[in-house]
C-alpha cells in the first residue's frame, strides 16, 4: 500500500514538474508584446512606414525606414539595419535605439528599424530566439536591396546581435556587423543561463525545458550558432560591444566570438553597465565607435 502511494505521488510530482516546464517554456517563446509607443518624429527624424515579408515568407514585418538627408549623392550610400532584443521592439528602449539612429542618420547613413516576428507591430505568434528571426533580418536585407539599393551594415542588440551574425554569415552583401551584448551559441547559453529568464531553479527545470520545448515548437537551438557563423563572415569586420558586468549574457560570449579572428574583429568591453546598457552609460563613446566602424566599410 505504501509502495503504491509512493508511486502515485512520484508520478504526480513528475507530471507537475513537466507541466511547469511546458508552461514556462511556452511563456518564454510567447512573450507578451510590448507597444511601439515612440516615433522618429519625437527625435526630429523623417520616417517612411514600411512592411515586408520575412525571407521565409511566413510572416510580414513592420518597420521604419529613416532616409538620411545627409547621405552622399556622389557615392554609394549605406543603410544600417537595426535588430532588437528578445521580447522587445524596434525601439530597444534600454538605449533608446531612436537616439542612436538619430546620430547615425545625421552622420549620413540610412537606418532601417523593424520589429521581429511576434514583436511590436509585426505578424507572428512565436519567438524562437534567433532560429526563425534570422529569416526576418534576411527579409529586411531583401527590402533594402529591392527598394533602396545601398551598402548594408547590421546592428543588433542581445538576441538581435546574434541573429544579425547568423544573417550576415549567409548574405555576402552585408559589409559588416555591430553587436551589443550578443550570445554566441543558444543551446549552451540556455543550459547555463535559463534561470535568468525562467525564474526557476536550474534543476530540474532547465534540462526539462530544454528537452521538451524544442520538440514542442519545432526548433533546433543547436542551429542558432553565432560562434560558428563568424567564421563565414570573416574577413568582413565585426564590432562586438559588451559590458563586463552584464548578468543576463556574460561578456565571455562576445570575447569568444571576437577571439576567432581578432585581426578583423573588434571588441569593446565596458564596465558597470547592465545588459545592453553600454550606450546608456557612455552614449558619446558608443556613438563614436559605431560611426568610426561604419566609416571604414
UniProtKB/TrEMBL annotation:
It comes from the Bacteria. Residues 70-186 form the Xaa-Pro dipeptidyl-peptidase-like domain. It holds the Pfam family Peptidase_S15. The keyword Cell division does not apply. GO terms for molecular function: hydrolase activity. Transmembrane segments: none annotated. Keywords: Hydrolase. PANTHER family: ALPHA/BETA-HYDROLASE (PTHR43358), ALPHA_BETA HYDROLASE FOLD-1 DOMAIN-CONTAINING PROTEIN (PTHR43358:SF4). This is Alpha/beta fold hydrolase. It comes from Paenibacillus phytorum. The lineage of its organism: Bacteria, Bacillati, Bacillota, Bacilli, Bacillales.
Amino acid at each position: 500500500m505504501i509502495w503504491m502511494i509512493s508511486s502515485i505521488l512520484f508520478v504526480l510530482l513528475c507530471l507537475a514538474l513537466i507541466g511547469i516546464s511546458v508552461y514556462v517554456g511556452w511563456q518564454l517563446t510567447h512573450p507578451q508584446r510590448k507597444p511601439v509607443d515612440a516615433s522618429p518624429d519625437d527625435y526630429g527624424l523623417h520616417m517612411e512606414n514600411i512592411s515586408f515579408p520575412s525571407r521565409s515568407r511566413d510572416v510580414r514585418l513592420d518597420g521604419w525606414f529613416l532616409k538620411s538627408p545627409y547621405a552622399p549623392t556622389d557615392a554609394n550610400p549605406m543603410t544600417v539595419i537595426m535588430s532588437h532584443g528578445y521580447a522587445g521592439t524596434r525601439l530597444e528602449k534600454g538605449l533608446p535605439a531612436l537616439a542612436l539612429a538619430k546620430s547615425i542618420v545625421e552622420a549620413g547613413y540610412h537606418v532601417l528599424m523593424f520589429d521581429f516576428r511576434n514583436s511590436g507591430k509585426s505578424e507572428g505568434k512565436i519567438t524562437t530566439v534567433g532560429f526563425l528571426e534570422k529569416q526576418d533580418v534576411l527579409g529586411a536585407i531583401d527590402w533594402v536591396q529591392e527598394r533602396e539599393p545601398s551598402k548594408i551594415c547590421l546592428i543588433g542588440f542581445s538576441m538581435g546581435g546574434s541573429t544579425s551574425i547568423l544573417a550576415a554569415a549567409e548574405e555576402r552583401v552585408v559589409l559588416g556587423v555591430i553587436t551589443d551584448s550578443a550570445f554566441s551559441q543558444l543551446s549552451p547559453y540556455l543550459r547555463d543561463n535559463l534561470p535568468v529568464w525562467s525564474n526557476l531553479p536550474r534543476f530540474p527545470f532547465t534540462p526539462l525545458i530544454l528537452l521538451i520545448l524544442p520538440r514542442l515548437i519545432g526548433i533546433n537551438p543547436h542551429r542558432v550558432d553565432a560562434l560558428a557563423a563568424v567564421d563565414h563572415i570573416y574577413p568582413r569586420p565585426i564590432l562586438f560591444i559588451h559590458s563586463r558586468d552584464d548578468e543576463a549574457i556574460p561578456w565571455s560570449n562576445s570575447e569568444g566570438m571576437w577571439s576567432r579572428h581578432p585581426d578583423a574583429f573588434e571588441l569593446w568591453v565596458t564596465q558597470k553597465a547592465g545588459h545592453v546598457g553600454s550606450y546608456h552609460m557612455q552614449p558619446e563613446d558608443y556613438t563614436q565607435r559605431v560611426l568610426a566602424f561604419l566609416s571604414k566599410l
